[in-house]
User: Fold these one by one.
Assistant:
Number 1:
Amino acid sequence: MAALLVTGGAGYVGSHTVRELLERDEHVVILDDLSAGHVVAAGGAEIVRADLAGPNIARSLDEVLGRESFDAVLHFGAKAYVGESVEDPEKYYRNNVGGGLELISAMVRHGVPALIFSSTCATYGNPERVPIAEDHPQRPINPYGRTKLVFEWALQDFEVARGIRHVNLRYFNACGAHERGDLGEDHRPENHLIPIACEAAMGKRAHLSIFGDDYDTPDGTCIRDYIHVQDLAVAHVQALEHLRGGGASASFNLGTGMGHSVLEVIDAVERVSGKEVPREVAPRRSGDPPRLVATSEKIRRVFGWEPRFPSLERIVETAWAFKEHFPDGYPND
Ligand code: UD1
C-alpha cells in the first residue's frame, strides 16, 4: 500500500487521525514543525521536522515525497488561532496559504493525486441560516477563516489544472480527547472552552471568562456545535477511502448538528468533574457569531459517517480524563 503524508500529524486533530490510520496498518509519514505538535502524540510514526512556511520546505517535501510512493496527503498543518490571525495576518497567509501552496506544488512534482484538507466553519463567517449546510455562502470574517477559504479555492483550481482531487472537511468545534485518555488537547496557550473549563475546575486557573452573556440565545451565551476529535479522525479515514476509490472532490461539514451554549458546557464540566468551575462574565470576544451549528446530513449520507460521541457529557468525560492523565499537558518532548 502506498504511503500517506500527514502534515501537522503531531497536533491535536492530526495525532488522533494518525492513531486511527496506524490502527488500520497504514504507512504514515508525519511532516510537522512541532511548533504546536508533540512528539509523544505521534504514536511512533516517523516525524520529518519541517516548517511549511520555512525557506527549505520545497527541499524537505522533495526528499520525503521522492523516496517512496504516496497516494494521498492529509493536511492538518496550519495556524489556527482566530485572535492571533487578526493581530498577525502575515503569519496566517504565509503558513496557511503560502505553506499550503508549497505542499500542492510538491504533490504536482511527485504525482501525489489526492489531498484531505482540515477546513473550518470559520469559512462561513456570520451565518445567514442555521443550521449551516455546505452550500451556505462562505464569507469569513477573520484572516484565519479567509486563509482557509483561499486554500479551498486553490484546491479547486489545482484540480482543474493538475487533476489533484480533494476533500474539504469543515470542522465545527473540535473537542474531547481519545477514549483511552492518553491523547488529547494540549494547546499552548490554551484558548478553547472545554480545556479551559477543566483547568478552572482543577484550580489551575482562577476562573473562566464567559465571553458575553447578552447574546440573542436562550441563556445569553454563544452556541457552538462541539464535535469529538475521534469522530473527526474517522471522517478523515472515510474521506481517504472515498478518494482512493476514485470518488469526486467534495466539501463536508463536520459537526453533530447539536448546539450547546457556553453555560451548558460549564455545567457538563461541573457534573463530570464533581467540581465547581469558577467563572466571570467578560465582554464579548470580537468575531464570535452567536450561534454556529452544522447540518452534517451530507457526510452521513455520502460516507455513512455517524458520530460515536454525540453527547456533550461523554465528550467532556474524555476531555476530563485526559486532563487528569496529564494535568500539565503532555510530558516534555
Ligand atoms: C474558533 C473558530 C473555529 C476554529 C477554532 C480554532 C470561529 C467562529 N470558530 O472556534 O472555526 O477551528 O476557533 O481555534 O471562528 N469561550 C468563552 N470563554 C473562553 C473560551 C471560549 O466564553 O475562555 C466561548 C467562545 O466565545 C465561544 C465558545 O466558548 O462561544 C467556544 O470558543 P472556542 O473554544 O475558542 O472555539 P471557537 O472560537 O468557537
Number 2:
Amino acid sequence: MTWDELPVVVTVAPIGAEVTRADNPALPHTPGEIAADVAACAEAGASVCHLHVREEDGAPSSRPELFVEAIELIRDRTPIVTMVSTGGAVWMPMEQRMTGLEAGPDLAGVETGSMNFGEDPFVTVPADARRVIDRAATLEIGLEAEMFDVGHVVAAVRMVERGELPAPLRANLVFGVPGGIDASPEALDAMLRPLPAGTHWSVTAIGRHQRRLLALAILRGAGGIRVGFEDGVFLRRGVLAASNAELVADACDLVRTLGRRAATIDEARDLLDCPLRVETG
Ligand code: KMH
Ligand code: ZN
C-alpha cells in the first residue's frame, strides 16, 4: 500500500483536562455525555477516542468509576477504539493519572518525558513511564506514546530498543503546547526524524496553526490525526465548534480534500493492532 492509500485514523479527544464550558459550552462532562458525544464522533468518522473524565461539575477527575462508566457506555453504542490518557492533569500524581487503565480500554497513552505545560511542570520520569508500561502489559492494553518535544521521541525510541515499549511504536506527536515544540513544518520534520520505519504516527496540534499542521501531516503520510475540544474549541478563527462531532466531520473533510480517506473503525483496529476486546468470565 502506498502512503496515499493508507487510511487516516481520526482520533477524537473530546474532553482533556484543561478546557472548560467557558471555552465551549458543548464540552461533555458526565460519562453519559461523553459516550453520546463519542458515538456522534464515530458516526462523523472518528475511529479512536482519547479519554479523560470529569466530575459532574466539570472538575478534571481520576475516579476509576467514571472511566469504567464512560467506557461501558461508549462500548454500548459504538465499537470505536477506546484510549485512556495517563497524562491526566498537571497536578495529578502518577497513581491518579493511571486509574483509567483499570477500566480496560483498548489503548492507553504513555508520556515519555517531562516538560513545562504552560506555566506548570508536567513531569513523567522514566520510572513513571515504566509503571504505566508494566501495568498496561499486565492488563493487555496497547500503548500510544504521547510526545510533546523531540527529546520525548528520542526517549520513546530508546524504550523500544530496550524492549520496554512494544514495537511497532504507536506515536502521537503533539505540537503547539506552550513549553513543547511549536506547530511548524520544521517541527514536524524534527519530530519525525528519530522515528523508526513501521511507526504508526499521528499528529495533534494546538493553537492557530492546528489545521495547517494537520494538513501537512496528512500530505506527509501520517497514519492519524487528532481533533476535539481537548486540542481546540474553534472550527475556524472566531467560530466556536458546535460539537466534537463537527470538528471530526471537518477533519474528515480535510482528509478527503487532500486525496486520502478516514479509516473505518475496523481498519483502525487493524492498523493499530488492537482487536476488539472480548471479555471472558
Ligand atoms: N492534560 C495534560 C497535562 C495526555 O492526555 O496524554 C496532559 C495530556 C496529555 O492531556
Ligand atoms: Zn489527553
